[in-house]
Amino acid sequence: MYKLWATIVKDVRILSRDKVGLTFMFGMPIILVLVITSIQNSTFNLVNKNKVSLIICNRDTGTLSTDLIHTIDGIGMFRLVQVAKDQDAKAITDRMHAKDALLAIVIPPDFSYQLTTKAKKLAGKALNSFGLEGDTLHAKNGNVDPLTLYYHPILQESFRRSIQGALYSALQLVESKQVLRSLYFAINEKTLPDTLENELLNNRIGINEIPVVRDGSRIVPNASQHNVPAWTIFAMFFVVISLGGSIVREKSSGSFIRLKTLPTNYLVALLSKQITYLGVTLLQAAVIFAMGVWLFPHIGLPPLNMPADLSGLFVVSFMCGWCAVSYAICVGVFAQTQEQANGFGAVSIVILSAVGGLMVPSFAMPGSFRTVIQLSPLHWCLEAYYGLFLEGGKLRDVLTNIIPLFVIIILIHLLILLGLKRKKLI
Predict the structure, then answer these.
(1) What whole-number distance in Å separates Cα of residue 365 and Cα of residue 356?
(2) Closest to 408 (Cα-Cα) out of 375, 368, 362, 386
(3) CA-based, 20 to 30 A from 188: which of 29, 66, 82, 422?
(4) CA distance 392 to 230
(5) Contact status, residue 381 vs residue 405, Cβ threshold 8 Å
(6) Under CATH, what is the fold of the domain 49-202?
(7) Can you give the pLDDT at residue 140?
(8) CA-angle at 403, arms to 401 and 407, nearest 5°
(9) Of 345, 360, 336, 359, whose CA–CA distance to 423 is shortest?
(10) In terms of Cα–Cα distance, which of 340, 320, 321 is closest to 248?
(11) Low-confidence residues in the chain, pLDDT < 70
């Protein structure tokens, strides 16, 4: 026991001198959590709070184009910038290149006339289907010239689709309103009352959104719930920079040879490193979680809601830290130089993070990645954390994620022993 304690003290002293490693293990994850959470929180609030600038060039002189503009404004997604109707495409795109707006819509001439004609034609067809006399000769084809939507290339396709859907909804509302007016006028020979129009068009069925959680709570997960656990795992696995390099330095400096001459086994030294760096990973988790709970609300970010099962949180953090430390030791055992350990360790963690769902949600990955995802230990770490933070589960609910993680840890330790035996270090 004394030998183990002395080895732990030695490893702590070595770790305290590794300024670069401490920066990677604590400074970089804190910055990542702050930056990524801020960006994703802004993305979550984009529709509700931050409006996208939209240039509108209305070349129509009728009233329906004005109705369309009011309807688009009522969506709440856009900050409208109206320009003169005689501006050409170059003038509009020049303003977009200058980042005055990311979107622009050109309403074509005769939009109101064409839409009114189409509405009357549809109303006439409806009346004829009811056995009533309706006029269907107001237009040759009943088509309306399409609107032109300019968008800046920096807008991703998913966001463009949501914008396009919102604009289609606005167009559909204006068109439906005009069809109703035409039908009402054809039957009653008077204009549709505003109150009836509002009842017919705005009487929508509500949608209750309920998160599926195990503890029965109705707390909606925020950006902190998604990002803090993910980047805590990333921080844990980045101990490979310090721990992997430390093992390589011991091999290259001859420390392994000296340790073999001592009346002890090198496995004691490995156990010491595991205990020391496991403490580091748990401290990383404590620091990042505390930052999410107490710091985030003071800098405008949503607070991190801790899970109810704190004992389960400790067990999951322990298993994640143990896996991270084991992986770092494995890299250090097989690497020949410190550059190899640092380079391979850092790149492999980024790859495992991407595959494991830390950077791209696993549900958004193609089906061919399903098997590959399960090979990443970071995937099981993330699923276990999400089971506690997002689903409100307890330790028994995340055992299906902890057990595969434990199997991966055992396999990593077998690789470590195999590597030590091949290098005749034990």
Answers:
(1) 10
(2) 375
(3) 66
(4) 16
(5) yes
(6) abc type-2 transporter like fold (3.40.1710)
(7) 46
(8) 120
(9) 336
(10) 340
(11) 1-24, 40, 42-50, 130-142, 189, 196-197, 199-201, 203-204, 206, 209-220, 253-267, 269, 363-364, 366-368, 425-426
